[in-house]
């Protein structure tokens, strides 16, 4: 068997690298588009929000993230109004959880602490008093800082 010297790389290697590059670009695009975006207006302030509308997105939520800016939010979008229960699994910071139905705040769980160090069975659960089809999470203390209360209007505009 003889070794053939070539100044050009074998065609198969070029094809493999091209495919990996394309797959990488597609994967990056999918990751960026994982959540749709919206603007949330409440308490006289505008928030830039990610919208979790699939089951997988709602399950993940903000879990594992390091922080949330004071002008940022997460919106959980459901197809129907129910008393959706939330917990702070894998959260690293506290939140205000705000349940919304028909553009009005129907309940607030203020300053909900992260579940650091707790087993799943020990994590507190948070549920609204009434059914809601949207839930907005903002950094803890936002509701108090802006004077947000039950009955206030909330506008969620998806982009």
Helix content: 10-25%
Q: Report the principal-axis shape.
A: globular
Major pleated sheet:
7 strands, mixed
| N/C terminus separation | 63 Å
Q: Nearest-angstrom radius of gyration?
A: 22 Å
Number of helices: 3
**What is the correct CATH architecture?**
Sandwich
Q: Quick recap of the structure?
A:
The protein is an alpha+beta fold and 159 residues long. The chain has one domain: Protein of unknown function DUF192 (Jelly Rolls).
Structure overview:
It is a single chain. The chain has 159 residues and is an alpha+beta fold. A hairpin with a 2-residue loop joins strand 1 and strand 2. The N terminus is likely disordered.
Secondary structure elements and pairings:
Blueprint: H1 11-32, E1 36-42, E2 45-52, H2 55-60, E3 72-82, E4 95-101, E5 104-112, E6 132-139, H3 142-146, E7 155-158
Parallel strand pairs: 2-3
Antiparallel strand pairs: 1-2, 1-7, 3-6, 4-5, 4-6
């Amino acid at each position: 068997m003889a070794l053939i010297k070539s100044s050009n790389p074998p065609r198969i290697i070029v094809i493999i690298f091209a495919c990996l590059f394309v797959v990488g670009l597609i994967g990056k695009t999918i990751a960026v588009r994982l959540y749709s975006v919206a603007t949330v207006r409440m308490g006289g302030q505008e928030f830039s929000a990610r919208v979790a509308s699939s089951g997988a997105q709602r399950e993940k939520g903000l879990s594992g993230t390091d922080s949330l800016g004071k002008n940022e939010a997460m919106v959980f979008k459901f197809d129907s109004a129910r008393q959706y229960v939330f917990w702070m699994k894998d959260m690293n910071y506290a939140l205000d959880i705000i349940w919304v139905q028909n553009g009005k705040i129907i309940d607030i769980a203020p300053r909900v602490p992260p579940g650091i160090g707790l087993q799943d069975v020990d994590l507190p659960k948070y549920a609204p008093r009434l059914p809601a089809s949207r839930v907005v999470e903002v950094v803890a203390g936002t509701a108090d800082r802006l004077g947000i209360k039950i009955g206030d209007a909330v506008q969620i505009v998806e982009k």
